[in-house]
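Quick log. Single chain, no ligands specified.
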Amino acid sequence: MVDIKLVDNSVYRLLMEKFELGLFENPYVDENKAVAFVGNPALQAKADLAMRKSIVLLRNENKALPIKQKTKVYFETYFQKRGAPSASNVFQPLKNNHDIEFVKTPEEADMILVWITPGSKSLFESNGSPIYLSLSKNAVDINYINALAAKKPTILAVNYTNPWVIDEIYNEQTKKHFAGVLATFGTTTDALLDIITGKFKPSGKMPFTTPISEDQAQQQLSDVPGYLKGKQYGLFWYDEGLQYK
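-> predicted structure:
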């Protein structure tokens, strides 16, 4: 059992933060001030910059990135929601702000860009069952991704809401299919394409270490950061990130 003194101390700290922020005295939003902030161009510019800086370039085989001008790119955003059909979408911009050509099929492309967002359990869906980090356990059709990557040189982008294990698609046998790997953290399509095409140079660093396999994830040491769990543990390491030269 948890000592009630620890619970009381945690609650005290949370409440003190709220008191210092004035949430008890004035808990309501000033609508007039909200209008000044929402859609503010200067604040949007800062947000756009932050999103681009957050993207991490993890692998860049044979300096495939940035993509050369006029390259034909098949760009698929692969968003999976657990228990629902695939929400895989071929990206076709209404206005192309990048000097590459977006095509409708992998067969037309010089290069494939696939951006995966795994569909994990939400906090409120927790039921005490084990948590897995493998893509196949989080609504990703790994056979589909592997078949897609085998068609043309592929840039893989993964949206890391958790330290996903990607060895089912990226391993010693299959990594020959991937010209580059990037990590994103809830950014926009334009931000990712700016990095891919070199309009913005990557500068992000990984905020955590990702396990090299599900076995390593399940055998991890409790309350020890990934970069201290030994050389056998990680695939992408805390503070790792490449830049263009």
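DSSP finds six helices and nine strands in the chain.
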